[in-house]
Design goal:
Helices cover 35% and strands 18% of the residues. By secondary structure, the protein is α/β, with parallel strands linked by helices. It has a single domain, classed as Alpha/Beta hydrolase fold, catalytic domain (Rossmann fold, 3-Layer(aba) Sandwich), CATH 3.40.50.1820. An 8-stranded mixed β-sheet has the order 1-2-4-3-5-6-7-8, sandwiched between helices. The chain is globular and about 50 Å long.
């Protein structure tokens, strides 16, 4: 369908800024330019910052308990990994989205401040992500979380980490996960899909930016072929938890999400694909810009609630 009018307006506003392209910046400059989470935030039960042990030192995590709940009380949990191409992003930048997800899903959301590239190359981020997920599982009761109803999720690079964590949990024999929520995820170190050709320039996330992200994330080009970097390249997806995948029509990553959904379905993993017509990469973090943001978050929450109602895997 045509580009959403709100997306078109947003892209015009970005163009008027006449700012340097992302791939022309240093990582430090790119981080400084990343927009903060829009305010005001949704009211929520509580927000707590804690530390979790990780392979490279303690990992910062932020625990969101949904509204109308002063603390978690055996609630399901979503361990969330933020986007930003493994180079940018922070707990603060995703405050709004994590609050909204907690309320929509009726779940504790644990946002993970994993190590960023290029200071910490692959596999630092994904090992932090796996360690944080294990910590939530082990400490679940003290966090007010039911460890048997534990999901992982993330957007963009965070979706990549969530998919990789599911592969790692399967390969390393646990812990069991109830769902994976992949929001316009990066799933393959390749730039040859139709959606890259159609949407690789002019729709906010560009091919040049993706090449810049991958360059900073990987130490060696060949690392991109590993399934923990490119989950779409895993030999088998059998045994993974059920998936919810959200794609945006005018996103160069769209075909990766669609291909992963097809593979999961073909290999017997329950999957729900939500294609968001007319929209661009990153829309879920901008509820005041895109009218479809809040309904899509509610839909994500509904799917998670349904999954947790049936229980476990």
């Amino acid at each position: 369908m045509p580009l959403d009018p709100q997306a078109e307006s947003f892209l015009r506003q970005v163009a008027k800024l006449n700012a340097p392209s992302l791939h022309e910046l240093t990582p430090e400059q790119a981080r400084a330019q990343m927009a903060p989470a829009p305010q005001p935030f949704e009211p929520i039960g509580s927000v707590t910052d804690v530390r979790a042990p990780g392979p490279g030192g303690d990992i910062g995590v932020r625990v969101y308990v949904p509204a109308a709940t002063e603390r978690g009380d055996g609630l399901p949990a979503l361990v969330y990994f933020h986007g930003g191409g493994w180079v940018m992003g922070s707990l603060d930048a995703y405050e709004g989205l994590c609050r909204s997800l907690a309320n929509a899903a009726g779940a504790v959301v644990v946002s993970v401040d994993y190590r960023l590239a290029p200071e910490h190359k692959y596999p630092a981020a994904v090992e932090d992500a796996y360690a944080a997920m294990r910590w939530v599982h082990e400490q679940g009761r003290s966090l007010g979380v039911d460890p048997s109803r534990l999901a992982v999720g993330g957007d963009s690079a965070g979706g990549n980490l969530a998919a990789a964590v599911c592969l790692m949990a399967r390969d390393r024999r646990g812990p069991a996960l109830s769902c994976q929520v992949l929001l316009y995820p990066i799933l393959d170190h390749a730039f040859d899909t139709a959606s890259y050709r159609e949407n690789g320039e002019g729709y906010y996330l560009t091919r040049a930016a993706m090449e810049w992200f991958w360059k900073h994330y990987l130490t060696r080009e060949e690392d991109g072929a590993h399934p923990y970097a490119s989950p779409l390249r895993a030999v088998s997806l059998i045994g993974l938890p059920p998936a919810l995948i959200v794609t945006a029509e005018y996103d160069p990553l769209r075909n990766e999400g669609e291909a992963y959904a097809r593979r999961l379905d073909a290999e017997g993993v329950p999957v729900r694909l939500i294609p968001c017509d007319g929209l661009i990469h990153g829309f879920l973090r901008r509820p005041d810009t895109f009218a479809q943001t809040r309904p899509t978050i509610r839909q994500i929450g509904h799917v998670l609630r349904e999954r947790w109602e049936v229980g476990g895997r």
